[in-house]
Amino acid sequence: MDANWSSKIRPIAAAIGCATLTACAPLMMSAVSTGGSRAVSHTLDGVSYRTFAAPLPRVKDASFSALKNLGIESASATKSEQGETIAAKAIERDIEIKLDPLTSKATRMRVVAKNGLFRDPATSAEIVAQIEKALGKT
């Protein structure tokens, strides 16, 4: 084998190796989602983030509405020093939505959907999308 052939195979082998590792799946999802129209950020640990140009009470109402539309009705909110946290349960999922006011007109959201020890980035991203949709209706 010549050196030129070897230099072409290494990047291909590395890409195939990375694609087969489960740790790369969230990274690939993040890379794909950055090109989309939604401004949802996914981290490697399965957490979805979104900042809305809306006050916290409006985002909170939209969050409850979105959870209800998804069939998740066991939601409750608790206040903290920084903002509010909404806790909910779905089948085999514990959901946490943390709302932090950035200003009186902007709210940062963090959504985590857990299935035991594992996080479910697809569910957290869908919850954010549904909240975004609910905010558009209000």
Class of secondary structure makeup: alpha+beta
CATH arch. level architecture of the largest domain:
2-Layer Sandwich
Nearest-integer average pLDDT? 80
Shape descriptor reads: elongated
First CA to last CA: what distance?
A: 65 Å
**Mind summarizing the main beta sheet?**
7 strands, antiparallel
- SS elements, strand count: 7
- How much of the sequence lies in strands comes to 25-35%
Remind me, CATH topology of the largest domain? Double Stranded RNA Binding Domain
* CATH class term of the largest domain: Alpha Beta
The CATH homologous superfamily of the largest domain:
Sirohaem synthase, central domain
Assembly classification: single chain
* Count of domain modules: 2
Order of helices and strands: HHEEHEEEEEH
Radius of gyration equals: 19 Å
Low-confidence stretches: 24-38
Protein described:
By secondary structure, the protein is an alpha+beta fold. It folds into two domains: 37 residues; 99 residues, Sirohaem synthase, central domain (Double Stranded RNA Binding Domain). Helices cover 43% and strands 30% of the residues. It contains four helices and seven strands. Strands 1, 2, 3, 4, 5, 6 and 7 form a seven-stranded antiparallel beta sheet that branches. The longest helix has 18 residues. The protein is elongated and about 60 Å long. The termini are far apart. The relative contact order is 0.17. About 11% of the residues have low confidence.
